[in-house]
Design goal:
By secondary structure, the chain is α/β, with parallel strands linked by helices. It is built from 15 helices and 12 strands. It holds the Pfam family ApbA_C.
């Protein structure tokens, strides 16, 4: 098997860990146990054990976990996490990876530090950071083989997640833990389908949801405004095996990696990071995802401000159809069936009203999706409406309205590309 975009052959069986997965060596039984051994031997003559029972136990190796963290991206969350982790003297310096040389120049001009301000612009703290490492995918192959990246936090635009990790694919394997700051869901499935197609070689994943409010402060690239929130982290369980590692061992090893990432983030008090279950992650993410799948999707389709969507009768009719269909999809999911109380808020009138009020509060603002579409770039609709469509296909329920909206947005993106005569392979993937 080969990695996508690579000419190198990759074996499924791979000895990743220094401690070999060897069988336990049998030790002589003590004299007091000889009687019970004789009884067991007699019983063995009657009930011959199967090959599975004869197989010796395979001990779990003690793996070495690195504290080195690399942050991919340069949005406010990426900078805030870097700032928070830099406060721990026990951690190695956090390394930011950037695909643009601009942050390198700003780093020297702005004091080589990340500055945090409160919501009114008053300075809170300043911490020095290591100069960002410039990752140029065109010259990456010319370097010597780089070491494996142990802990990666990805916080960048949705469309840049896949090409960003594609550029780093030679430094990622099952020893790597990737923490995804993507607001929507479905990025893990997308990465596995298009980039990490060999299950045994896939990295470990941690899905993150942040309630921290962050924005840019003035024109400074390394200064941000911050309203405290919380970081919810969900460790995605592994589901693979190969010749060296059985499924159960693979899951245990994977949990060691993901728990280590969660521990590293939890140690930074400013992040207020906590571990969450899958149900808790859904409860936190679904409201924002539903708002984007409604407000941003319709704004992109109509190419208008939020207030014009709210005042358009036909647009709001489509809004209600989309809302009802999405609620029905979520209600049909397997994880919903035994936990209806947790998702009861979806069916309450006040939740539907809250989304409409949130739309009204946007006022005359434009959705960020509009600027993406106008430049011929696909907005993160694959991780909002696209996620609901994929889950609807899994459980066999209707997803016609979500699919329609997705098709309309994708058609507009394609038409803008043709209008500007920009080939898809020359579109700018990275946005630091």
């Amino acid at each position: 098997m080969t990695r996508p975009g690579s000419n190198e052959s990759v074996a499924i069986s791979h000895p990743f860990y220094a401690s070999p997965l060897i069988s336990k060596v049998a030790t002589p039984a003590p004299p007091s146990a000889r009687a019970s051994t004789a009884v067991a031997a007699a019983a063995a003559e009657i009930n011959t054990p199967t090959e599975e029972e004869e197989a010796p136990l395979r001990p779990i190796p003690n793996i070495r976990l690195s504290n080195k963290i690399h942050v991919v991206g340069f949005d406010p969350h990426a900078r805030f996490i870097t700032h928070a982790l830099s406060a721990d003297p026990k951690l190695p310096p956090v390394q930011i990876l950037t695909h643009s040389p601009i942050p390198l120049r700003s780093w020297g001009q702005e004091g080589r530090a990340i500055n945090i301000h409160d919501s009114k612009g008053h300075p809170i703290s300043t911490r020095n950071i290591v100069c960002p490492d410039y990752v140029n995918p065109r010259t990456w192959k010319l370097r010597a083989p780089p070491p494996i990246l142990d802990n990666i936090i990805v916080s960048t635009t949705s469309r840049a997640v896949l090409p960003t990790l594609y550029a780093l694919r030679d430094r990622i394997d099952r020893r790597t833990t990737v923490c995804l700051m993507e607001p929507g869901l479905g990025a893990v499935e997308k990465l596995n389908e298009e980039l990490f197609q060999v299950p045994a070689l896939r990295p470990n994943y941690v899905i993150c949801h942040s309630t921290h409010k962050l924005s840019r402060h003035s024109y400074y690239k390394y200064s941000i405004r911050h309203i405290p929130g919380r970081l919810y982290l969900y460790a995605v369980p592994r589901d693979d095996e190969d010749e060296d590692i059985d499924r159960a061992t693979s899951q245990i090893l994977g949990s060691q990696h993901t728990q280590h990432m969660i521990d590293l983030l939890s140690a930074a008090t400013e992040l207020d990071a906590v571990s969450a279950t899958w149900l808790q992650m859904l409860v936190h993410k679904l409201p924002d995802m539903m708002f984007e799948s409604l407000a941003d999707a319709l704004s992109a389709v109509l190419d208008c401000r939020y207030d014009l969507v709210r005042s358009n009768r036909n647009a709001m009719s489509l809004w209600h159809e989309l809302f009802d269909e999405t609620v029905h999809i979520i209600s049909s999911l397997p994880e919903f069936q035994n936990h209806r109380k947790k998702f009861r808020f979806l069916h309450e009138r006040r939740f539907a009203a809250m989304l409409r009020v949130r739309l009204e509060n946007q006022g005359r603002e434009y959705s960020k999706w509009i600027s993406e579409v106008r430049r011929g770039r696909e907005p993160p609709i694959q991780f909002t409406n696209g996620y609901f469509v994929r889950r609807a296909q899994e459980v066999g329920v209707n997803h016609e309205t979500n699919s329609l909206v997705m098709s309309m947005v994708e058609a507009k993106v394609e038409s803008r590309r043709k209008m500007h005569q920009i080939p898809f392979n020359l579109m700018e993937d990275y946005d630091d």
